[in-house]
Design goal:
single chain, alpha+beta, two-stranded antiparallel sheet, 18% helix, globular, binds zinc ion
């Protein structure tokens, strides 16, 4: 299940993925870990449409 590292992803980057990932707004934007390629989610992020994702 990935390497468990916590990456600091700039908000702009998360927002970019959020934009690319329109459709289901009930799930946070996802992106791949740069180290191992595992799927990652932002831990605490307020989406472009005002959704608050907290994992
Ligand atoms: Zn990883």
């Amino acid at each position: 299940m990935g390497c468990k590292i916590v990456e600091k992803v700039p908000k702009e980057v998360v927002e970019y993925f959020d934009m690319m990932d329109d459709g289901d707004t009930s799930i946070p934007p996802r992106f791949s870990c740069e180290s191992c390629g595992a799927e990652m989610y932002p831990k605490d992020y307020i989406g472009l449409h005002g959704e608050h994702y907290k994992i």
